[in-house]
């Protein structure tokens, strides 16, 4: 602009000199030189005007780009705040699940105590049964003693024994019946105990097999989920790298088309800075790109940690795991669309 003003002042001075020279026709040769110099100054003025308009348009485009980047930063900050709110909600949910787990453990403890009390009652009943069997045996021994006494009384008094012979035979038959009943009870009880023990052993074996199979399935599922998340993370990182390379290639092409060394020197002289400083001003987006890459890395790290926590959490967690995987798949779809559009523009 200063050069433009100097040229306008010189042009006015030359016009004034030409008018004065027109009045005095004594010197025609210097007048031609003045007209030629005026034309040259007019050409320089036009060139400076066109260069000024170019620089103003580039400054406007740079301002628009800065404004767009500021809006993008505000959007990203809003998303970060939303993610923080989601994280707090998930933390509250984890605390709720932990409290539920604690209550379930307490309920299990009470049920175990009730089971132990029932086992003690069963043991007491078995002891009572054993005591009743011992009492019956004692009675049987007492009956045998009475029988021996009856035999002695038979030798002592045959008459009394003959009278009471019928009663003795009846008592003997009752004793036999009681012995048979006792043996039958013992056999039935032993068979039932053996059957119960066999059934419990079979049930424990099947339960152990099912538990091992279930644990193997759970481990396979965890391995599948970890592999899937790693592949997703790797593919998203590759897409981001491709997009950055495509953007750099597009920027390099645009710089080659739009700027030359003379333009850079002229812009540096107008802005009163060196060419190196002007190049650094044009490359200021690299720091922002580095910060964006760092933020994306932290976000991916948090996503992997979230997947690991979901796999280590208590049931149910399928819906939360599905939401996390869908989030990464949507991000991958957006990156694919962005990369395809960049490749179209580059081509």
TrEMBL record:
Gene Ontology cellular-component terms listed: centriole; centrosome
InterPro entries: CNTLN (IPR038810)
GO biological process, one term: centriole-centriole cohesion
Keywords assigned by UniProt, alphabetized: Coiled coil
Coiled coil: 31-174
Protein name according to UniProt: CNTLN protein
Organism from which the protein derives: Machaerirhynchus nigripectus
